[in-house]
Design goal:
- This protein is mostly helical.
- The protein has a domain at 1-45.
- 61% of the residues lie in helices and 0% in strands.
- The protein has helices spanning 9-22, 26-42, 47-57, 70-76.
Length: 80
């Protein structure tokens, strides 16, 4: 049977605390914590999904058909 040996004392103490708070074994505490983290990561939207959702909420206005005034925008930026 594969085993997980936690060498780091701080991590071991955190697992002990979580197991004690939940009233479970250390193995059960680690399993539940890992499952919760995996589920959280699966539910996180990708950058593309976040961008698509943003544009659904805040769509760009329809093009006006007017030409941009380059001199005006150059002046706004201090002619950079």
């Amino acid at each position: 049977m594969p085993s997980l040996y936690i060498k780091d004392e701080r991590t071991n103490a955190l697992v002990d605390e979580l197991a004690r708070l939940r009233g479970t074994s250390k193995t059960e505490a680690v399993r539940r914590a890992v499952e919760a983290e995996l589920e959280r990561n699966r539910s996180v939207a990708t950058p593309r999904q976040r961008l698509e959702n943003f544009y659904k909420r805040y769509p760009l206005p329809e093009p006006s058909g007017l030409a941009a005034d380059k001199a005006f925008y150059d002046d706004l930026s201090g002619n950079l």
